[in-house]
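**Sequence with structure:**
===
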Amino acid sequence: QVQLQESGGGSVQSGGSLKLSCAASGDTRCMAWFRQAPGKEQEGVATITSDGRTRYADSVKGRFTISQDNAKNTLYLQMNSLKPEDTAMYYCAARINYGCTFLSRFGSWGQGTQVTVSS
């Protein structure tokens, strides 16, 4: 399994920006960001394949950008125009098999990083 370590969470006011990072210990075919707010189910935020194809949840399209640095095995999530409803624990996930959707089975998960957006 690939080991994942997130960083970059924090507190920001509505309309602000944050950038999350996720360092992976090895190569993957698909990486993703998920989030879970208190009392809510986990939801997919964005996915990216090893060749750079991306997919976003409707709630973050146009505001969030997922990217990766393959040389550094690092995943990023640039979050702009943040809203209070973006407040959640954000998790990085990875899979080494083909397929890259929010419903794919991810074998590796990070410990999570908290993002809090105040109004």
